[in-house]
Design brief:
The longest helix is centred in the C-terminal third of the chain and has 25 residues. The protein has three domains: about 80 residues, lambda repressor-like DNA-binding domains (434 Repressor (Amino-terminal Domain), Orthogonal Bundle), CATH 1.10.260; about 150 residues, no CATH class; about 60 residues. The protein is mostly helical. It has a two-stranded antiparallel ribbon with strand order 1-2. The N terminus is likely disordered. It contains 16 helices and two strands.
Length: about 300
């Protein structure tokens, strides 16, 4: 059960989020009582003020009405600290909304975030900003799959087979997604405790709207870092290969691109065909070496 973090409620925070004055909240509270024919006394803005300051604490029935009027949960008003298990559930619910098999490309991810998280991703989804967004940094599905494949290969195969069967079973994609969400927790339970503790340090899960684009980017980085660390542990040569590729293939390719304009014309007057072919030959040689290194590692 959640533990109370203090005796002063968070009622004021929730009220201000909605943009209500104490008088407006009292009016809405009383209207809710009348509409639902509840046997509870009307309240006033002075009582609201006393609740907010912690002078008196609203009873459970009153708290439930306040939560309904403010469109939140009673524990958000009372200021309870979630237990680790409750935080794990919050995180599993979020991952369930983020995990979407067969949705990997940029347009798919835009649709996912537009449908599920528009208020928290409005700036990210702004068309003028899309050109500057690395959408793979928000692809939780791919990073989670990579994590399971490396650490729990048998479970990863089972999840893939199960989602494939569900995809064939449901013609409606929303029904398919709901079915995936229902089976996902058993796989998340393999690592959710560690992930929850790490996420909670950066984005306290007890707070309302604790997730946003930064939270989801953090989740992707967490999975990717775990995978990279484990790969480096199992294969020390992996890091050497990564550095080799960066310095001998990736950077030279970018350098080669900067030698030409958008129409393929050399940007330097003194750039000769020999210089170009020499750089291309060097890159090809490095690719051959990288391929040999990869074969040895496998």
């Amino acid at each position: 059960m959640a533990q109370s973090s203090n005796h002063v409620s968070r009622l004021k925070t929730q009220r201000l989020k909605k943009g209500y004055t104490q008088k407006q909240l009292a009016t809405l509270f009383n209207s809710y009582i009348d509409k639902n024919h509840l046997k509870i006394k009307h309240t006033s803005f002075t009582t609201i003020s006393r609740w907010e300051s912690g002078v008196i604490e609203p009873k459970d029935r009153v708290l439930n009405i306040l939560a309904a009027v403010l469109d939140t949960r009673p524990d958000r008003i009372r200021g309870y600290e979630l237990t680790l298990k409750e935080k794990e559930k919050e995180l599993k619910d979020l991952l369930g909304r983020l995990y979407s098999p067969y949705m990997h490309d940029e347009e798919d991810l835009k649709v996912l975030y537009d449908n599920e998280f528009y208020d928290d991703f409005a700036d990210l989804l702004d068309t003028s900003a899309n050109d500057y967004v690395e959408w793979r940094d928000f692809d939780v599905t791919r990073s989670l799959d990579d994590y399971l494949t490396l650490f729990y290969p048998d479970k990863a195969k089972l999840l893939d087979a199960t989602t494939s069967k569900l995809f064939d079973k449901f013609e409606d994609f929303d029904q398919f997604q709901k079915a995936v969400v229902s089976i996902l927790p058993q796989y998340l339970n393999l690592f959710i405790s560690k992930l929850t503790k790490d996420v909670d340090k950066e984005f306290p899960i007890n707070h309302d709207h604790w997730f946003n684009s930064d939270t989801i980017s953090f989740l992707v980085k967490w999975f990717n870092e775990q995978v990279n660390q484990e790969r480096n542990r199992r294969h020390p040569e992996y890091k050497k290969m990564e550095n080799f590729y960066t310095h001998n293939i990736d950077f030279p390719l970018m350098d080669l691109q900067t030698m030409f304009d958008s129409e393929g014309h050399p940007l330097k007057e003194n750039l000769t065909e020999y210089d170009i072919q020499k750089k291309i030959a060097s890159i090809k040689s490095s690719l051959d070496q990288y391929g040999s290194m990869l074969i040895k590692m496998l």
